Amino acid sequence: MGKSYFPIFVDLLHQPVLVVGGGEVAARKIRLLLKSGAKPRIVALELNEELAALVAESKASLIASTFEPAQLVGMRLAIAATDDRTLNRTVAEAAESAGVLCNVVDDPEASRYITPSIVERGPITVAISTGGSAPVLARRLRERIEALLPGAYGKVAEFMERHRARVKTLPVEQRRLLWEDFLDGPGPERLLAGDEVAAVFELESLVGGKPARGEVYLVGAGPGDPDLLSFRALRLMQQCDVVLYDALISPAILDLVRRDAERIYVGKRRAKHTLPQEDINAELVRLAQAGKRVLRLKGGDPFVFGRGGEEIEELAAAGIPFQIVPGISAANGCAAYSGIPLTHRDYAQSCIFVTGHRRKDGQLDLHWDALARPGQTVVIYMGRTALAELCAQLVANGLPADWPAALIEQGTTQSQQVVTGSLGTLPGLVAARSDIDGASLVIVGEVVKLRDRLKWFLPT
Ligand SMILES: C[S@@+](CC[C@H](N)C(=O)[O-])C[C@H]1O[C@@H](n2cnc3c(N)ncnc32)[C@H](O)[C@@H]1O
């Protein structure tokens, strides 16, 4: 059973702290002390380069001698940071007699206090301690919290500090509720997007008792594997009031949306009709105007064959705040999970993304001469239905019939299937597979040959 500690944050501004040791371990501690405004006093016969520079710049002072208990007089804290365990313990005992709290680096048993693992976001500090019993676990927890807290979260704390006076006029309980409403509303996201004016507007609306303004998050959910979501995507998914999603969004990803958010499906209906784009645009505007935080969740990246631009144009025209979160597009996801690099020094110096979706008149609207080129990878979205014609046209425009080509269906998911062949054989190989009828991406180019060596993802 480890010791129990009393957690505190100590104000060390201008306070003297004795650090015994002049090497890297001492330097690490001194860097932290300087951040809190403390005045480190180093006891050492030799200093490393960094500490010598700090002393030269008067950021720390030096007692160039061996350790003496008298050096502890007047100190707020002490840190024993030499590589001599016996000396460290001597420092700790002397500090104990002098009533100075002492930390011995990597020796919690001899320490009167220990320093936690920390995550910092501006004025916010999250401290993690396992009481010295499992520092590796503390580090792991720290990594998790690092990932959870957006880098710019300090801005939110600073904003709240700056606007405290504005809210102070309200009774205490109302103040607390107001800040809670602010944190639950679009204000923090506006700040994280760098829009302070909009955040002030949100705060003023709350102070004036007006209902919160809605906003829209256009979020790319990636190609299928939930692990490929960005931190930002996940955060917005967990704070929306309503989500509009389409057929490419897998149940596993939808599961990560806030439980009590309303779910609206806008993809292909059973009768195979898609909700017209204009209706989706109008719905986004309507919901946001009703004060909702609306998540528009799209497969892959919203700006790659995703019509994200059209949705945003409508929001911009209606003056609705929005933000756009990129996602991993099917090309990147399928390439990585099938072991087919999109470019390669020896095989492809460029890569081109096209859609194989036929126009209303049934034609494929592609510049074949720009596609049928050696040294280039062609990625075809929505190309399964027209696969035979696509391959034939590429051959007709100059690529050899044995030019490598692959089709990846439901890439990055546990149902991923990859069919490899050539422009001549791929259409037949795919047509013979009745089990391939999901979202599919075609990759054409010599890079396909690398799959034999680079494949790693083997869904069960
Ligand atoms: C309307 S587009 C949307 C593309 C999306 N915005 C993106 O960046 O990936 C839909 C097409 O993307 C491709 N696609 C999306 N997810 C896929 C996946 N997991 N595996 C293979 N192809 C996929 C298919 O070609 C599908 O027909």
From TrEMBL:
Q: Residues in domain Siroheme synthase central?
A: 121-147
Q: Name all Sirohaem synthase dimerisation domain ranges.
A: 152-205
Q: Where is the Tetrapyrrole methylase domain?
A: 216-426
Tell me the active site. 246, 268
Query: Mind listing the UniProt keywords for this protein, alphabetically?
Result: Cobalamin biosynthesis, Lyase, Methyltransferase, Multifunctional enzyme, NAD, Oxidoreductase, Porphyrin biosynthesis, S-adenosyl-L-methionine, Transferase
**What is this enzyme's catalytic activity, as reactions?**
siroheme + 2 H(+) = sirohydrochlorin + Fe(2+); uroporphyrinogen III + 2 S-adenosyl-L-methionine = precorrin-2 + 2 S-adenosyl-L-homocysteine + H(+); precorrin-2 + NAD(+) = sirohydrochlorin + NADH + 2 H(+)
NCBIfam families recorded:
cobA_cysG_Cterm, cysG_Nterm, PRK06136.1, PRK10637.1
Protein name in UniProt: Siroheme synthase
